[in-house]
Amino acid sequence: MTKIKALVAAVAASAALVTMPAAANETLDKVKKQGYVSCGVSTGLPGFSNPNAKGEWEGIDVEFCQAVAAATLGDKSKVKFIPLTAKERFTALQSGEIDILSRNTTWTLQRDTTLGLNFAGVNYYDGQGFMVKKDLGVSSAKELDGAAVCVQSGTTTELNLADYFRVNGMSYEPVVFDTSAQTSKGFEAGRCDVLTTDQSGLYALRLNLADPSSAVVLPEIISKEPLGPVVRQGDDNWFNIVRWSLIAMVNAEEFGVTSANVDEMLKSNDPNIKRLLGLDGPKGKGLNLSDDWGYQIVKQVGNYGESFQRTVGSDSPLNISRGLNALWNQGGIMYAPPIR
Ligand SMILES: N[C@@H](CCC(=O)N[C@@H](CS)C(=O)NCC(=O)O)C(=O)O
Predict the structure, then answer these.
(1) pLDDT above 90: residue 6
(2) Does the C-beta of 179 come closer than 6 Å to ligand 1?
(3) What are the residue boundaries of the structural domains of the chain, listed by start?
(4) Ligand 1 near 180 CB (within 6 A)
(5) What is the pLDDT, as a whole number, of residue 25?
(6) Considering only the top CATH level, what class is 130-223?
């Protein structure tokens, strides 16, 4: 190739790079074509993703997928829930079987990089804890040397457990299960002295024991478990949609916009509210969505606080306090970037 030809080719290639949107809107197009969001959830974890008596999926992770469906398809009911064990979840996302993984999944370096995935944010700040039978007479995790520990495979829980016992010079015998139902049954049947998982999960599993008062949750929190929705790498538009759906829910809470008052709020003069509801600002353009995407999320699902309260908070059997999951201006660390 002559120098000139090479130069022309190089310029053409760089122009193509500039003008061609990377990977186009692959997942959004797929979702529109199939008519629903394929959402990977757990096989059953009360508060996060769990089928109710009527077989309908409920929980904070379920509602998040409904929010993405409201934003992208204008209808929160257009979600197909795919129950997945901890071990199955990442393959289901990598293979394209699901469009979002919304399944109490901890954001870690390896998952966010090597696995080819992207965490779009945090919808629940958690940490790992222990639950023991009351009659074991133990009040601290430091007294667990030699214990048999029920734990779920394919989780950060398994890894933190190993770290914690090693660092504290204690031994343990792992008793490993594939689902939380099995783990909980194993604990009840006396296969182990202690059950370990994310603290929110401990409260959920304890509630489902035949006698919840027979078990106590120990005070130690041994890890950080920032849980959030996950997408595949390589589709920035979809990543942005998922990320900004969560951001919209948190900002809606901060600005006092709820599913009940959102229509009234359309008349608000507050520029933040106007931008959230798509009446002003960037609207849906950058996300390739209709301008009312934020309005649809709040109208159909609600703001972050409403979703929290209904699924894991004070209106739910779990009754978990907001703690770290309170807004940044109310003592927590939920802080959403501005919509502008
Ligand atoms: N957050 C941890 C643990 C996630 C996890 O799978 N926890 C269990 C125990 S609470 C669970 O959700 N089980 C539900 C199921 O079996 O489908 C992780 O991402 O590895």
Answers:
(1) no
(2) yes
(3) 26-125+227-252+307-330, 130-223
(4) yes
(5) 85
(6) alpha beta
Cα–Cα distance for residue pair 20/81, rounded to 1 Å: 33
Q: Which among 77, 106, 81 has a CA at the least distance from the CA of 92?
A: 81
Which of 3.40.190.10, 2.60.40.1120, 3.40.50.1000, 1.10.560.10 would CATH assign to domain 26-125+227-252+307-330? 3.40.190.10
For ligand 1, whether the C-beta of 86 sits within 6 Å is: yes
Answer whether 316's CB lies under 8 Å from 200's CB. Answer: no
Q: Label residue 20 by pLDDT band (50, 70, 90).
A: very low
Cα 291 to averaged position of ligand 1 atoms, centre (Å): 36
CB of 45 sitting under 6 A from ligand 1: yes
Confidence band of 148 (pLDDT split at 50, 70, 90): very high
Ligand 1 contact via 41 beta carbon (within 6 Å): no
Q: Phi-psi region for residue 137, left (φ > 0), alpha (ψ -120 to 50) or beta?
A: left
Q: Is the pLDDT of residue 267 over 60?
A: yes
**CA 247 / ligand 1 centre spacing (Å):** 24
Is 309 touching ligand 1 by the criterion CB < 6 Å?
Answer: no
Q: Give the Cα separation of 290 and 281 in Å (integer).
A: 13
pTM over 0.85: yes
Tell me the CA–centroid distance for residue 86 and ligand 1, in Å. 6
